[in-house]
Write a structure and sequence with these properties.
Blueprint: H1 14-34, E1 39-44, H2 48-64, E2 67-68, E3 77-82, H3 87-101, E4 111-116, H4 122-131, E5 137-139, H5 147-157, E6 161-163, E7 184-188, E8 190-191, H6 202-206, E9 210-211, H7 214-226, E10 231-235, H8 252-260, E11 267-271, H9 280-287, E12 295-297, H10 305-311, H11 317-330, E13 335-342, H12 349-362, E14 366-371, H13 389-412, E15 418-426, E16 433-438, E17 443-447, E18 456-465, E19 468-473
Parallel strand pairs: 1-2, 1-3, 3-4, 4-5, 5-6, 7-10, 10-11, 12-13, 13-14, 17-19
Antiparallel strand pairs: 8-9, 15-16, 15-18, 16-17, 18-19
The structure holds S-adenosyl-L-homocysteine (SAH), iron/sulfur cluster and FE3-S4 cluster (F3S).
The site of FE3-S4 cluster has 11 residues, from helix 2 and helix 6.
Length: 474
Protein backbone atom coordinates (compact mmCIF):
# COMPACT_ATOMS: atom_id res chain seq x y z
CA UNK A 1 0.00 0.00 0.00
CA UNK A 2 3.06 2.27 -0.07
CA UNK A 3 2.82 5.28 -2.29
CA UNK A 4 -0.90 5.63 -1.66
CA UNK A 5 -0.40 6.63 1.93
CA UNK A 6 -1.08 10.31 1.39
CA UNK A 7 -4.67 9.58 0.39
CA UNK A 8 -5.48 7.29 3.31
CA UNK A 9 -7.40 9.43 5.85
CA UNK A 10 -5.72 9.58 9.25
CA UNK A 11 -8.81 10.54 11.21
CA UNK A 12 -11.34 8.00 12.47
CA UNK A 13 -13.91 6.91 11.49
CA UNK A 14 -13.16 8.27 7.97
CA UNK A 15 -10.08 6.06 7.81
CA UNK A 16 -12.18 2.94 8.40
CA UNK A 17 -14.72 3.92 5.74
CA UNK A 18 -11.79 4.13 3.33
CA UNK A 19 -10.71 0.59 4.23
CA UNK A 20 -14.26 -0.74 4.13
CA UNK A 21 -14.38 0.46 0.52
CA UNK A 22 -11.00 -1.15 -0.22
CA UNK A 23 -12.07 -4.44 1.42
CA UNK A 24 -15.28 -4.30 -0.61
CA UNK A 25 -13.30 -4.19 -3.85
CA UNK A 26 -11.10 -7.07 -2.70
CA UNK A 27 -14.19 -9.10 -1.88
CA UNK A 28 -15.78 -8.39 -5.24
CA UNK A 29 -12.60 -9.47 -7.01
CA UNK A 30 -12.47 -12.71 -5.03
CA UNK A 31 -16.15 -13.41 -5.62
CA UNK A 32 -15.66 -13.01 -9.38
CA UNK A 33 -12.84 -15.52 -9.14
CA UNK A 34 -14.70 -18.16 -7.11
CA UNK A 35 -18.14 -17.33 -8.59
CA UNK A 36 -20.05 -17.28 -5.32
CA UNK A 37 -20.58 -14.88 -2.42
CA UNK A 38 -17.95 -14.75 0.34
CA UNK A 39 -19.41 -15.58 3.74
CA UNK A 40 -18.61 -14.77 7.38
CA UNK A 41 -19.41 -16.10 10.82
CA UNK A 42 -18.74 -14.27 14.10
CA UNK A 43 -18.63 -16.42 17.24
CA UNK A 44 -18.88 -14.46 20.47
CA UNK A 45 -17.66 -15.58 23.89
CA UNK A 46 -18.09 -13.71 27.16
CA UNK A 47 -20.22 -10.86 28.36
CA UNK A 48 -22.61 -8.23 27.00
CA UNK A 49 -19.65 -5.98 26.17
CA UNK A 50 -18.34 -8.56 23.77
CA UNK A 51 -21.82 -9.16 22.35
CA UNK A 52 -22.04 -5.44 21.63
CA UNK A 53 -18.56 -5.39 20.06
CA UNK A 54 -19.62 -8.30 17.86
CA UNK A 55 -22.53 -6.27 16.54
CA UNK A 56 -19.98 -3.67 15.45
CA UNK A 57 -17.77 -6.34 13.87
CA UNK A 58 -20.73 -7.81 12.00
CA UNK A 59 -21.73 -4.32 10.92
CA UNK A 60 -18.30 -3.81 9.36
CA UNK A 61 -18.38 -7.20 7.61
CA UNK A 62 -21.84 -6.52 6.22
CA UNK A 63 -20.71 -3.06 5.05
CA UNK A 64 -17.86 -4.78 3.20
CA UNK A 65 -20.51 -6.98 1.61
CA UNK A 66 -19.82 -10.36 3.19
CA UNK A 67 -22.84 -12.67 3.47
CA UNK A 68 -23.73 -14.18 6.85
CA UNK A 69 -23.22 -17.95 7.11
CA UNK A 70 -24.96 -19.74 9.95
CA UNK A 71 -22.48 -22.62 10.18
CA UNK A 72 -19.14 -21.48 11.57
CA UNK A 73 -17.08 -24.18 9.81
CA UNK A 74 -18.51 -23.32 6.41
CA UNK A 75 -17.81 -19.60 6.45
CA UNK A 76 -14.98 -18.09 4.40
CA UNK A 77 -14.16 -15.71 7.21
CA UNK A 78 -14.46 -16.90 10.81
CA UNK A 79 -14.03 -14.37 13.58
CA UNK A 80 -13.81 -15.34 17.26
CA UNK A 81 -14.50 -12.52 19.67
CA UNK A 82 -12.85 -14.02 22.73
CA UNK A 83 -13.24 -13.81 26.51
CA UNK A 84 -10.64 -14.64 29.14
CA UNK A 85 -12.53 -14.13 32.39
CA UNK A 86 -11.95 -17.76 33.41
CA UNK A 87 -9.61 -20.40 32.05
CA UNK A 88 -12.46 -22.40 30.50
CA UNK A 89 -13.24 -19.41 28.25
CA UNK A 90 -9.69 -19.65 26.84
CA UNK A 91 -9.97 -23.42 26.44
CA UNK A 92 -13.13 -23.06 24.37
CA UNK A 93 -11.29 -20.89 21.86
CA UNK A 94 -8.39 -23.34 21.55
CA UNK A 95 -10.97 -26.11 21.12
CA UNK A 96 -12.76 -24.27 18.30
CA UNK A 97 -9.48 -23.50 16.56
CA UNK A 98 -8.46 -27.15 16.73
CA UNK A 99 -11.84 -28.17 15.35
CA UNK A 100 -11.61 -25.78 12.41
CA UNK A 101 -8.11 -26.94 11.58
CA UNK A 102 -8.93 -30.65 12.01
CA UNK A 103 -8.95 -32.90 8.98
CA UNK A 104 -12.74 -32.83 8.50
CA UNK A 105 -13.10 -29.08 8.58
CA UNK A 106 -9.82 -27.71 7.33
CA UNK A 107 -10.06 -25.25 4.42
CA UNK A 108 -7.01 -23.71 2.88
CA UNK A 109 -8.59 -20.45 1.83
CA UNK A 110 -10.48 -19.72 5.04
CA UNK A 111 -9.55 -16.56 6.96
CA UNK A 112 -9.53 -16.96 10.73
CA UNK A 113 -9.47 -13.81 12.85
CA UNK A 114 -9.31 -13.56 16.63
CA UNK A 115 -10.07 -10.49 18.70
CA UNK A 116 -11.32 -9.52 22.16
CA UNK A 117 -10.12 -9.88 25.72
CA UNK A 118 -8.05 -13.05 25.42
CA UNK A 119 -5.92 -11.40 22.73
CA UNK A 120 -4.85 -8.70 25.20
CA UNK A 121 -2.92 -11.38 27.05
CA UNK A 122 0.64 -11.81 25.86
CA UNK A 123 0.78 -15.49 26.85
CA UNK A 124 -2.33 -16.34 24.81
CA UNK A 125 -0.99 -14.58 21.71
CA UNK A 126 2.37 -16.34 22.09
CA UNK A 127 0.60 -19.70 22.29
CA UNK A 128 -1.44 -18.95 19.16
CA UNK A 129 1.64 -17.84 17.25
CA UNK A 130 3.35 -21.08 18.20
CA UNK A 131 0.62 -23.70 18.10
CA UNK A 132 -2.10 -22.18 15.91
CA UNK A 133 0.00 -20.42 13.30
CA UNK A 134 -2.77 -20.84 10.71
CA UNK A 135 -4.66 -17.92 12.36
CA UNK A 136 -4.63 -14.95 9.98
CA UNK A 137 -5.51 -11.91 12.07
CA UNK A 138 -5.20 -11.11 15.77
CA UNK A 139 -6.43 -7.89 17.32
CA UNK A 140 -7.57 -6.79 20.76
CA UNK A 141 -10.28 -4.93 22.61
CA UNK A 142 -9.09 -1.38 21.90
CA UNK A 143 -9.25 -1.53 18.12
CA UNK A 144 -12.39 -3.48 17.26
CA UNK A 145 -13.28 -0.69 14.83
CA UNK A 146 -10.19 -1.51 12.71
CA UNK A 147 -11.37 -4.84 11.29
CA UNK A 148 -11.64 -3.60 7.68
CA UNK A 149 -8.14 -2.11 7.79
CA UNK A 150 -6.69 -5.34 9.18
CA UNK A 151 -8.44 -7.41 6.50
CA UNK A 152 -6.84 -5.21 3.83
CA UNK A 153 -3.39 -5.50 5.41
CA UNK A 154 -3.78 -9.27 5.65
CA UNK A 155 -4.82 -9.50 2.01
CA UNK A 156 -1.76 -7.47 0.98
CA UNK A 157 0.78 -9.30 3.17
CA UNK A 158 -0.65 -12.81 3.37
CA UNK A 159 0.90 -13.57 6.77
CA UNK A 160 -0.42 -13.42 10.33
CA UNK A 161 -1.34 -9.81 11.10
CA UNK A 162 -1.21 -8.85 14.77
CA UNK A 163 -2.44 -5.49 16.02
CA UNK A 164 -2.82 -5.13 19.76
CA UNK A 165 -2.82 -1.89 21.72
CA UNK A 166 -2.04 -1.78 25.44
CA UNK A 167 -4.67 0.85 26.00
CA UNK A 168 -6.37 3.78 24.37
CA UNK A 169 -8.04 7.10 25.06
CA UNK A 170 -9.75 6.98 21.71
CA UNK A 171 -13.45 6.15 21.50
CA UNK A 172 -14.33 5.65 17.86
CA UNK A 173 -18.01 6.21 17.15
CA UNK A 174 -20.16 6.01 14.04
CA UNK A 175 -18.80 2.76 12.66
CA UNK A 176 -21.35 0.50 10.93
CA UNK A 177 -23.11 -1.86 13.26
CA UNK A 178 -25.56 -4.68 12.89
CA UNK A 179 -28.06 -5.31 15.68
CA UNK A 180 -28.95 -8.88 16.58
CA UNK A 181 -32.51 -7.89 17.54
CA UNK A 182 -34.31 -5.03 15.77
CA UNK A 183 -36.25 -4.11 18.91
CA UNK A 184 -33.54 -4.12 21.58
CA UNK A 185 -29.97 -2.98 21.84
CA UNK A 186 -27.02 -2.67 24.18
CA UNK A 187 -25.26 0.67 24.43
CA UNK A 188 -21.79 1.15 25.85
CA UNK A 189 -21.79 4.01 28.29
CA UNK A 190 -18.27 3.37 29.48
CA UNK A 191 -15.32 1.15 28.73
CA UNK A 192 -12.74 -0.52 30.95
CA UNK A 193 -12.58 -0.84 34.71
CA UNK A 194 -10.56 0.74 37.53
CA UNK A 195 -11.57 -1.51 40.37
CA UNK A 196 -8.90 -4.18 40.26
CA UNK A 197 -10.76 -6.84 42.16
CA UNK A 198 -7.83 -9.13 42.92
CA UNK A 199 -9.18 -12.16 41.00
CA UNK A 200 -10.21 -10.29 37.88
CA UNK A 201 -8.47 -9.84 34.57
CA UNK A 202 -10.87 -7.28 33.09
CA UNK A 203 -8.91 -4.13 34.09
CA UNK A 204 -5.83 -5.60 32.37
CA UNK A 205 -7.56 -6.58 29.13
CA UNK A 206 -10.10 -3.76 28.85
CA UNK A 207 -7.95 -0.93 30.19
CA UNK A 208 -8.80 2.03 32.41
CA UNK A 209 -12.35 3.27 32.91
CA UNK A 210 -13.50 5.72 30.24
CA UNK A 211 -17.02 7.17 30.20
CA UNK A 212 -18.54 8.25 26.90
CA UNK A 213 -19.92 11.79 26.81
CA UNK A 214 -23.59 11.68 27.84
CA UNK A 215 -24.68 13.70 24.82
CA UNK A 216 -23.25 11.01 22.50
CA UNK A 217 -25.03 8.30 24.48
CA UNK A 218 -28.37 10.10 24.35
CA UNK A 219 -27.96 10.79 20.63
CA UNK A 220 -27.32 7.08 20.07
CA UNK A 221 -30.43 6.17 22.08
CA UNK A 222 -32.51 8.64 20.05
CA UNK A 223 -31.27 7.13 16.81
CA UNK A 224 -32.00 3.61 18.04
CA UNK A 225 -35.52 4.65 19.06
CA UNK A 226 -36.10 6.11 15.60
CA UNK A 227 -34.94 2.79 14.21
CA UNK A 228 -37.55 0.80 16.18
CA UNK A 229 -35.66 -0.09 19.36
CA UNK A 230 -37.91 -0.32 22.42
CA UNK A 231 -35.57 -1.78 25.02
CA UNK A 232 -32.05 -0.59 25.72
CA UNK A 233 -29.36 -1.93 28.02
CA UNK A 234 -26.72 0.51 29.21
CA UNK A 235 -23.44 -1.35 29.45
CA UNK A 236 -20.35 -0.89 31.60
CA UNK A 237 -18.30 -2.95 34.07
CA UNK A 238 -19.39 -0.59 36.80
CA UNK A 239 -22.18 1.67 35.54
CA UNK A 240 -22.60 3.29 38.96
CA UNK A 241 -19.33 5.12 38.55
CA UNK A 242 -20.36 6.55 35.17
CA UNK A 243 -19.08 10.11 34.65
CA UNK A 244 -16.91 10.17 37.77
CA UNK A 245 -13.89 12.41 37.47
CA UNK A 246 -15.21 14.17 34.36
CA UNK A 247 -16.02 17.86 34.77
CA UNK A 248 -19.71 18.73 34.30
CA UNK A 249 -20.64 15.17 33.27
CA UNK A 250 -23.91 13.61 34.44
CA UNK A 251 -23.99 10.97 37.18
CA UNK A 252 -25.37 7.55 36.25
CA UNK A 253 -28.77 8.26 37.77
CA UNK A 254 -29.01 11.57 35.88
CA UNK A 255 -28.03 9.75 32.70
CA UNK A 256 -30.87 7.28 33.31
CA UNK A 257 -33.29 10.18 33.70
CA UNK A 258 -32.14 11.61 30.38
CA UNK A 259 -32.47 8.21 28.72
CA UNK A 260 -36.02 7.91 30.05
CA UNK A 261 -37.01 11.07 28.19
CA UNK A 262 -36.28 9.52 24.82
CA UNK A 263 -39.57 8.88 23.11
CA UNK A 264 -40.12 5.35 21.83
CA UNK A 265 -37.86 3.70 24.41
CA UNK A 266 -40.08 1.70 26.73
CA UNK A 267 -37.66 -0.35 28.75
CA UNK A 268 -34.25 0.51 30.16
CA UNK A 269 -31.86 -2.00 31.67
CA UNK A 270 -28.27 -1.68 32.82
CA UNK A 271 -25.29 -3.93 33.63
CA UNK A 272 -23.33 -4.13 35.90
CA UNK A 273 -23.79 -2.35 39.22
CA UNK A 274 -20.91 -2.48 41.64
CA UNK A 275 -22.39 -2.36 45.16
CA UNK A 276 -19.78 0.10 46.41
CA UNK A 277 -20.92 2.90 44.09
CA UNK A 278 -24.69 2.40 44.13
CA UNK A 279 -26.29 5.69 45.21
CA UNK A 280 -29.57 6.41 46.99
CA UNK A 281 -30.38 8.65 44.06
CA UNK A 282 -30.21 5.65 41.72
CA UNK A 283 -32.67 3.73 43.90
CA UNK A 284 -35.03 6.72 43.84
CA UNK A 285 -34.75 7.14 40.08
CA UNK A 286 -35.50 3.44 39.59
CA UNK A 287 -38.39 3.51 42.03
CA UNK A 288 -40.05 6.48 40.35
CA UNK A 289 -39.56 5.27 36.80
CA UNK A 290 -42.02 3.49 34.52
CA UNK A 291 -39.33 2.60 32.05
CA UNK A 292 -36.41 1.33 34.12
CA UNK A 293 -36.82 -2.41 34.47
CA UNK A 294 -37.47 -4.06 37.80
CA UNK A 295 -34.16 -5.87 37.83
CA UNK A 296 -30.77 -5.17 39.27
CA UNK A 297 -27.69 -7.33 38.91
CA UNK A 298 -25.64 -6.73 42.04
CA UNK A 299 -22.61 -9.02 42.21
CA UNK A 300 -21.87 -10.19 45.74
CA UNK A 301 -18.87 -12.44 44.94
CA UNK A 302 -18.59 -13.56 48.57
CA UNK A 303 -20.50 -13.12 51.82
CA UNK A 304 -17.40 -13.35 54.01
CA UNK A 305 -15.73 -10.14 55.16
CA UNK A 306 -12.33 -11.82 55.14
CA UNK A 307 -12.72 -12.89 51.50
CA UNK A 308 -14.33 -9.62 50.39
CA UNK A 309 -11.33 -7.77 51.76
CA UNK A 310 -8.89 -10.06 49.98
CA UNK A 311 -10.92 -9.62 46.81
CA UNK A 312 -10.64 -5.81 47.14
CA UNK A 313 -14.39 -5.41 46.72
CA UNK A 314 -14.55 -2.35 49.03
CA UNK A 315 -17.72 -3.34 50.92
CA UNK A 316 -18.51 -5.52 53.91
CA UNK A 317 -21.18 -8.21 54.05
CA UNK A 318 -23.33 -6.00 56.27
CA UNK A 319 -23.05 -3.02 53.91
CA UNK A 320 -24.08 -5.28 51.04
CA UNK A 321 -27.05 -6.75 52.96
CA UNK A 322 -28.22 -3.28 54.04
CA UNK A 323 -28.02 -2.06 50.45
CA UNK A 324 -29.90 -5.03 48.99
CA UNK A 325 -32.63 -4.80 51.63
CA UNK A 326 -32.96 -1.05 51.08
CA UNK A 327 -33.49 -1.73 47.36
CA UNK A 328 -36.13 -4.37 48.17
CA UNK A 329 -37.86 -2.00 50.58
CA UNK A 330 -37.99 0.89 48.11
CA UNK A 331 -38.83 -1.19 45.04
CA UNK A 332 -40.78 -4.23 46.29
CA UNK A 333 -41.31 -5.90 42.92
CA UNK A 334 -37.62 -5.77 41.92
CA UNK A 335 -35.62 -8.87 41.03
CA UNK A 336 -32.09 -8.95 42.42
CA UNK A 337 -29.55 -11.24 40.79
CA UNK A 338 -25.91 -11.75 41.58
CA UNK A 339 -22.54 -13.36 40.82
CA UNK A 340 -20.78 -15.57 43.35
CA UNK A 341 -17.25 -16.96 43.24
CA UNK A 342 -16.47 -20.16 45.13
CA UNK A 343 -12.92 -21.18 45.96
CA UNK A 344 -11.13 -17.83 46.15
CA UNK A 345 -7.71 -18.34 47.81
CA UNK A 346 -8.06 -18.82 51.55
CA UNK A 347 -11.81 -19.56 51.43
CA UNK A 348 -12.94 -22.06 54.07
CA UNK A 349 -16.22 -23.84 54.69
CA UNK A 350 -17.05 -21.12 57.24
CA UNK A 351 -16.58 -18.40 54.61
CA UNK A 352 -18.99 -20.25 52.32
CA UNK A 353 -21.43 -20.46 55.29
CA UNK A 354 -21.29 -16.65 55.33
CA UNK A 355 -22.07 -16.52 51.61
CA UNK A 356 -25.06 -18.84 52.09
CA UNK A 357 -26.22 -16.61 54.91
CA UNK A 358 -26.22 -13.50 52.70
CA UNK A 359 -28.14 -15.48 50.08
CA UNK A 360 -30.76 -16.38 52.69
CA UNK A 361 -31.12 -12.76 53.70
CA UNK A 362 -31.18 -11.15 50.26
CA UNK A 363 -33.16 -13.94 48.56
CA UNK A 364 -31.78 -13.71 45.07
CA UNK A 365 -34.04 -14.11 42.07
CA UNK A 366 -31.09 -15.64 40.25
CA UNK A 367 -27.35 -16.07 40.58
CA UNK A 368 -24.40 -17.04 38.45
CA UNK A 369 -21.96 -19.14 40.45
CA UNK A 370 -18.37 -19.60 39.36
CA UNK A 371 -15.46 -21.62 40.62
CA UNK A 372 -12.48 -19.32 41.10
CA UNK A 373 -10.13 -19.47 38.15
CA UNK A 374 -6.54 -18.30 38.52
CA UNK A 375 -5.75 -15.50 36.05
CA UNK A 376 -2.10 -14.81 35.40
CA UNK A 377 -0.66 -11.57 36.79
CA UNK A 378 -3.69 -10.83 38.97
CA UNK A 379 -2.86 -10.42 42.69
CA UNK A 380 -4.97 -13.43 43.73
CA UNK A 381 -2.99 -15.78 41.48
CA UNK A 382 -0.03 -15.69 43.88
CA UNK A 383 -1.97 -15.57 47.15
CA UNK A 384 -1.31 -18.43 49.56
CA UNK A 385 -3.90 -21.11 50.36
CA UNK A 386 -5.19 -21.81 46.87
CA UNK A 387 -8.25 -24.03 47.33
CA UNK A 388 -8.21 -27.65 46.15
CA UNK A 389 -10.45 -28.97 43.39
CA UNK A 390 -12.14 -31.36 45.79
CA UNK A 391 -13.06 -28.63 48.28
CA UNK A 392 -14.29 -26.45 45.41
CA UNK A 393 -16.58 -29.19 44.19
CA UNK A 394 -18.17 -29.70 47.62
CA UNK A 395 -18.59 -25.97 48.34
CA UNK A 396 -19.79 -25.14 44.84
CA UNK A 397 -22.54 -27.75 45.16
CA UNK A 398 -23.71 -26.21 48.43
CA UNK A 399 -23.92 -22.76 46.86
CA UNK A 400 -25.60 -23.99 43.71
CA UNK A 401 -28.23 -25.89 45.69
CA UNK A 402 -29.05 -22.78 47.69
CA UNK A 403 -29.23 -20.64 44.52
CA UNK A 404 -31.69 -23.05 42.96
CA UNK A 405 -33.82 -23.39 46.06
CA UNK A 406 -34.17 -19.64 46.58
CA UNK A 407 -34.56 -18.54 42.97
CA UNK A 408 -37.24 -21.18 42.42
CA UNK A 409 -39.14 -19.87 45.39
CA UNK A 410 -38.74 -16.26 44.22
CA UNK A 411 -39.95 -17.10 40.71
CA UNK A 412 -42.99 -18.98 42.01
CA UNK A 413 -44.23 -15.90 43.83
CA UNK A 414 -45.31 -14.40 40.53
CA UNK A 415 -47.76 -17.21 39.68
CA UNK A 416 -51.10 -15.77 38.59
CA UNK A 417 -49.71 -12.25 37.99
CA UNK A 418 -50.46 -10.44 34.76
CA UNK A 419 -47.20 -8.84 33.64
CA UNK A 420 -45.82 -7.17 30.55
CA UNK A 421 -43.62 -9.28 28.29
CA UNK A 422 -41.38 -8.03 25.50
CA UNK A 423 -41.60 -10.83 22.95
CA UNK A 424 -38.15 -11.77 21.64
CA UNK A 425 -38.38 -14.89 19.50
CA UNK A 426 -40.17 -18.07 18.53
CA UNK A 427 -39.77 -20.54 21.39
CA UNK A 428 -36.98 -23.12 21.04
CA UNK A 429 -39.26 -25.86 22.34
CA UNK A 430 -42.43 -25.30 20.35
CA UNK A 431 -42.99 -23.40 17.12
CA UNK A 432 -46.50 -22.42 18.21
CA UNK A 433 -45.03 -20.56 21.18
CA UNK A 434 -43.09 -17.33 21.56
CA UNK A 435 -40.60 -16.39 24.28
CA UNK A 436 -40.01 -13.07 25.93
CA UNK A 437 -38.93 -11.42 29.13
CA UNK A 438 -40.64 -9.76 32.04
CA UNK A 439 -39.37 -6.47 33.38
CA UNK A 440 -37.68 -8.65 36.06
CA UNK A 441 -35.79 -10.43 33.25
CA UNK A 442 -37.60 -13.76 33.87
CA UNK A 443 -38.32 -15.69 30.67
CA UNK A 444 -41.93 -16.52 29.73
CA UNK A 445 -43.16 -18.84 26.96
CA UNK A 446 -46.71 -18.49 25.69
CA UNK A 447 -48.78 -19.36 22.66
CA UNK A 448 -48.30 -16.86 19.88
CA UNK A 449 -46.91 -16.25 16.44
CA UNK A 450 -43.97 -14.48 14.86
CA UNK A 451 -46.00 -11.31 14.39
CA UNK A 452 -45.71 -10.65 18.16
CA UNK A 453 -41.91 -10.40 18.09
CA UNK A 454 -40.81 -6.96 19.27
CA UNK A 455 -44.16 -6.19 20.89
CA UNK A 456 -44.86 -5.66 24.56
CA UNK A 457 -47.96 -7.64 25.58
CA UNK A 458 -49.80 -8.60 28.78
CA UNK A 459 -49.33 -12.21 29.80
CA UNK A 460 -50.79 -14.15 32.72
CA UNK A 461 -48.10 -16.22 34.45
CA UNK A 462 -49.78 -19.61 34.78
CA UNK A 463 -47.16 -22.22 35.47
CA UNK A 464 -43.76 -21.71 37.03
CA UNK A 465 -41.24 -24.25 35.81
CA UNK A 466 -38.42 -23.34 38.19
CA UNK A 467 -36.65 -20.63 36.22
CA UNK A 468 -39.20 -19.73 33.57
CA UNK A 469 -42.97 -19.46 33.13
CA UNK A 470 -45.56 -20.86 30.82
CA UNK A 471 -48.15 -18.13 30.40
CA UNK A 472 -51.16 -17.03 28.42
CA UNK A 473 -51.67 -13.78 26.60
CA UNK A 474 -54.59 -11.81 28.04
N1 LIG B 1 -17.86 -5.87 36.34
C1 LIG B 1 -18.66 -6.87 36.87
C2 LIG B 1 -18.18 -8.28 36.62
C3 LIG B 1 -17.69 -8.68 35.28
S1 LIG B 1 -17.01 -10.28 35.20
C4 LIG B 1 -18.74 -6.67 38.36
O1 LIG B 1 -17.80 -6.30 39.00
O2 LIG B 1 -19.75 -6.95 38.89
C5 LIG B 1 -18.42 -11.29 35.56
C6 LIG B 1 -18.25 -12.19 36.74
O3 LIG B 1 -17.25 -13.15 36.50
C7 LIG B 1 -17.81 -11.52 38.03
O4 LIG B 1 -18.85 -10.90 38.69
C8 LIG B 1 -17.23 -12.66 38.82
O5 LIG B 1 -18.21 -13.31 39.60
C9 LIG B 1 -16.76 -13.63 37.74
N2 LIG B 1 -15.30 -13.69 37.68
C10 LIG B 1 -14.44 -12.71 37.37
N3 LIG B 1 -13.16 -13.15 37.46
C11 LIG B 1 -13.22 -14.45 37.85
C12 LIG B 1 -12.25 -15.45 38.13
N4 LIG B 1 -10.94 -15.20 38.04
N5 LIG B 1 -12.68 -16.68 38.49
C13 LIG B 1 -14.01 -16.94 38.60
N6 LIG B 1 -14.95 -16.04 38.35
C14 LIG B 1 -14.58 -14.80 37.99
FE1 LIG C 1 -13.58 -7.21 37.36
FE2 LIG C 1 -14.06 -6.05 39.66
FE3 LIG C 1 -13.89 -4.58 37.42
FE4 LIG C 1 -15.96 -6.19 37.80
S1 LIG C 1 -15.44 -4.39 39.05
S2 LIG C 1 -14.76 -5.99 35.95
S3 LIG C 1 -15.07 -7.93 38.88
S4 LIG C 1 -12.23 -5.72 38.41
FE1 LIG D 1 -14.93 -11.83 29.18
FE2 LIG D 1 -13.87 -9.59 28.42
FE3 LIG D 1 -16.38 -9.66 29.12
S1 LIG D 1 -12.89 -11.12 29.68
S2 LIG D 1 -16.48 -11.29 30.61
S3 LIG D 1 -15.52 -10.70 27.41
S4 LIG D 1 -14.97 -7.97 29.44
Amino acid sequence: MKGKEEIIPEKEPQRQYYFIEMARKLREEKEREIKRPLTFHVTTFGCQMNARDSEKLEGILKAIGYTYEEKEEEADLVLFNTCTIRDNADQKVYGRLGYLHGKNHYRKDRIIALCGCMMQEVTAVEKIKKSYSFVNIIFGTHNVYKLAELLCIQAAQGNMVIDILDGTDLIVEDIPNSRKYPFKSGINIMYGCNNFCTYCIVPYVRGRERSRPSKDIIREIERLAEDGVREIMLLGQNVNSYGKGIKDELSFSKLLKEAERVEGIERIRFMTSHPKDLSDELIEVMRDSDKICRHIHLPLQSGSDKILKRMNRSYTRQQYIDLALKIRREIPDIAITTDIIVGFPGETKEDVDDTLDVMEKVRYDGAFTFIYSKRSNTPAATMPDQVTKEQNRVQFDRVLKKVQEISKEMAQKRTGNIEKVLVEEISDHDAGFVSGRLSSNLVVHFEGSESLIGQIVDVRLDECRNFYYIGKRV
